[in-house]
């Protein structure tokens, strides 16, 4: 019942904006009301056109529409990957030279990187994962424990700050370019 009440309160406000004469700020406020709908913006037919327009605007380099009357602000961001599972960290491959000058070879190692495309076990004693040649003094840190990081289907986000706090909304801008 508590989820129904916000939607019921939301619909008359949206209807009033839809039927009111257009003003410069109405678009940003309509987008704000729609994105805050607890049932999702796509669940209300009147929300689909303004949100699609807002996404197209952002996809083409314009800022997220604002609603000054609501005291809200939005910041757009991008995260290609989902977080690594518990007890693992994000890593990226890197080439390191090993051996002496006469018999030097490149080895692939994985080093911590918050934007890395792979996940590796969290291990405070190892700064990297990779296989080093015998006698190099480094030992072996198995790369089999390194796994690809899961990609987000909706990598773009909007951090929306209102008087009620901050919320993050995920979406995919590639659909609107």
Key attributes of the depicted protein:
177 residues; alpha+beta; 3 helices; disordered N terminus
List the strand order in the largest sheet.
6-5-3-2-4-7
Briefly note the structural class of the backbone: alpha+beta
* Count of strand segments: 9
| Overall mean confidence score, pLDDT | 76
Separation, N- and C-terminal Cα atoms: 39 Å
Oligomer: single chain
Largest sheet: 6 strands, antiparallel
**What proportion of the residues form beta strands (DSSP E)?**
25-35%
Can you tell me about this structure?
The protein is an alpha+beta fold. It is 21% helix and 28% strand. The protein has a 6-stranded antiparallel sheet, with no helix packed on it. Strands 1-8-9 form a 3-stranded antiparallel sheet, with no helix packed on it. A hairpin with a 6-residue loop joins strand 2 and strand 3. Helix 2 packs across helix 3. The longest helix is centred in the first third of the chain and has 16 residues.
Short description:
The chain contains three helices and nine strands. It is of the alpha+beta class.
